[in-house]
Structures are given as structure tokens and as C-alpha cells.
Write a structure and sequence with these properties.
The structure holds two protein chains of two kinds.
Chain A (H helix, E strand, L loop, with lengths): L19 E2 L1 H7 L5 E5 L16 E2 L2 H5 L10 H11 L6 E5 L5 H12 L5 E4 L2 H7 L30 H7 L4 E3 L3 H5 L23 E2 L15 H10 L9 E4 L4 H13 L5 E3 L3 H5 L21
Parallel strand pairs in A: 1-5, 2-3, 2-4, 4-5, 6-7, 6-8, 8-9
Helix pairs in contact in A: 4-9
Chain B lengths: L7 H11 L3 H13 L15 E2 L8 E5 L6 E5 L5 H13 L5 H5 L12 H4 L1 H21 L1
Antiparallel strand pairs in B: 1-2, 2-3
The chains are: A alpha/beta, B mainly alpha.
Chain lengths: 300, 142
Amino acid sequence: MPVAPDPAPELQEYAHPERLVTTDWLAEQLGTDGLVVMESNEDVLLYDTGHIPGAVKIDWHTELNDPVLRDYLDGEQFAALMSAKGVSRDDTIVLYGDKSNWWAAYTLWVFSLFGHDDVRLLNGGRDKWVAEGRDLTRDVEPRPSTDYPVITRDDSTLRAYKDDVLNHLGKPLIDVRSPEEYTGERTHMPAYPEESALRGGHIPTAQSVPWARAAAEDGTFKPLDELKAVYTEGAGIDGSDPVITYCRIGERSSHTWFVLQHLMGIDNVRNYDGSWTEWGSAVRVPIVKGSEPGDAPARS
Amino acid sequence: MTDQALPAGLQTIRDDFLALGQSDRLQLLLEFSDDLPDPPEGIIPEDAWERVPECQSPVFIHVATDQTPPVVNASAPAEAPTTRGFASILVTGCQGASREEILGIPLDFPQSLGLEEAVSLLRLRGMAGMIWRIQRQLTDAA
């Protein structure tokens, strides 16, 4: 059975406050029946150095991707993974991780492709929990395995493919990478040369809104009025048109997707997980260099 | 690539990894991460450390090239245990190795540890950057 939402006043202004939990709430709820806490990090060993007591490790790179295709698990593989981790379909999942929850948000987004109903983020992620001096342990408590049902992944609602983006040009598109990646000065993040593309720049018409503009200094999400200033006033996202977000492989843009969809309540937001590593290497797709969004190419 | 043998320390480490199952390999990497020796305090000037930009987290390498055999030092934060583990493998595995042996470490050594499945190939690539920089510091000093 799902666990009641966190009633913390600071969350109630968001469109879907039930998608976030505070560290205070989580500390009190640990061990509650029906609650599964999962840690999803960039660093594959970080969980093993110490994690929230009872938390289950989930790794985006090695566990959520098909081992051969560039794609996510299919329904059967996902059911096997969740069953092995001891997660039931009606469990409440709270995700947290390093890097301001980039990979936790990415994992949440993948879980959402499978329609797992109640999946939440820990506001502030791992860093906030650690900064507050809360308990960490290296002990791993295996959960009894479950019988998670096989659910067909739904790629039509939350996921955009390259062709969807080509057909979308002219409607709101958000590039959440660093300014240097957007202008084309760099083809990868400063410290990530291995996740490169053959060309630098951005998708025509994309607005540059680096992901971190949604985050406060302690890694929590900014208050709603500040988010509106960034996305609605700053980038014209008001919910009247469908939106697509992208970065280089889709993890930072999952963070922004979460903000738009769950905190601001904008319907019809999709994440383009192919992102710049696909677009920047694809043959004959239009690219704009420099700091201006550029125009949508004329349709032939 | 030379046909020279790996430094004995690295060879032993590789054999240790390959003798284990996938999840135990990750545990062994964690042990290396925990055991990364602190660099000797106050001996290496701050500007002598070289950042390894191929790694996703701040890791710094320093080779004491004036010693025989040369001594490899590394520093990486606790929040980046995977990177610390890779650095620790190199620091430990190069102990006692000659300059020529270290120069002969192939850049694809990380792929031979059997960690692709547990760690992912993407995360392994930063380690090649460390090897390359260790070797470059040695050739620069010649």
C-alpha cells in the first residue's frame, strides 16, 4: 500500500507535492511497510561506501539499460529487476542520489516509463542527507524478492525520439547543458570527454536553461515562484504547448523534466534521452552554433 | 604497444579481480578505494599535482620522478569512490616498478580487470587518462 505523502509545508506549493519528500520525513518513515528507499548515483561505488539504512542500490548504467541495445530494459527485464530488488508494484519508492539527484531523477523517469505509480525524490538528495549528519550504513539488508508484474514500457508519453524532436521544432525545446556545450564551444561536459559527439552546438530553436537553475545551493529544488521566473518568464514555458528537454544522454534533462512535470504541473513534457550524443553525431540533422536559439529549418 | 610484462603489482591485482565473481569485484574495488594511501604530507607542492580531466571527479596525479624507482601518488575525494579505487589500483600496482615498466603499461589495462559489467565501460575510461598522465610525467622528466 502506498505511504501517505510528506505533509511538509514547504512542499505544498508545488503542483504535485506528493512527488517529493524531505529528509526529516524520510528519517521518520524508514522501515515503514510499503516504503522502498533506493539510491541511484553517478558513482557506482558510492552506495557501498555508506547509504541510508535499508536503502536498495539501483544503478542506471548497469541495471536499467539493455546490455546490448542503446535502450532501456523491456517489460520482462524490468519485472525481473524489480522482483529481485524486492519491490512490489504498489510500493512507494523514494529515490535519492549524488549530483543533486541527476541519476535519481533519471531512474525515476525510467520507472515512470513503466508506469510505477508512486515514485518520489528525496529533496536535496544524498548530499543533503550527508550534510545533515544523518545515519549512513554499509550494511545491506536484502529484501525478500517479489513478483513484480510484466508491464509494457510506454515510450509515447514521456519519451521523445530523434524524429519526434524533428517534428517538434518550433515548439518549446529546452537544452539543459552548460553554456559551452550549447554554443558548440565544447562537444561534451568539461569533465566528461568520453560522452562526446561529432559536432558541437544545439538543436535549432532550443532555449538554453542549464539544469542547475532549478536547484538551490543545498541541492533542493527552488521555490515555485523562482522556478516560474526561470522557465515561464525566462524560457516561455507556460504549459500551452508540449515541451521536450534534452542534455547529452538524458540524465540532467530528467532533472528538468521532473521540475516541469511534477513541480510546475506542466502536462506533456517529454525527455529526449538520445540527446546530444545522438543528435550531435547524426547525419544531416540541423544544428545551430552560438548563443542564439536559431530558427526552425523550413520543411521540405 | 610493447610486449613488456605488466608491473608485477598490477599483474597480481588483475589476477585477483579476475578470480572473483562480478559483485565481489566491486567489493574489491571498494577495498582499494578505502585503502588509497594519503600522499606524503607537505612534500609535494600543490602546483605539482596534475588534474586528470578524463575523470568525472577531481582526481590528481603526481609522480615523484626524481626517485628510483619512481613513486606514483594520487588524490581523489571520498565522494568519488570509483575514481579513488582506480587511482589506488595504480598507486599500489606501480609500487616498486621501474620507470620502463610503468611506461609499458598498456592504456587498455583497465579493460582487462573484468569490470565492464559491474562498473560499465564509460566509467572505466577515466582510468586510462590516469595511466596516460603518469606516463607523460615520466617522459617529461627524462
